[in-house]
Amino acid sequence: MKEHRNPRFTILDNQTVGLNLSLFRKLRQKKALEVALHLGLKEAAYTKYERGETKITIEIIQNISEFLNVERLFI
To answer: Mind listing the GO molecular function terms for this protein (predicted)?
Structure first.
């Protein structure tokens, strides 16, 4: 069976995204708590994103990247 791929859509790998969030946060010398507060989350909920344990939305990624002043997160 042939697999159909749509080039307009990308499936996000939560672990890769989480690793990038963590790396950029550390590069910007921010604590996980600071990002969590910006998002209106508890720190434990935010760190689940960084560990890839929780599915993340594009909206959350954009919000975090704006807070960390990152023009583009490599996902």
So the answer is: DNA binding
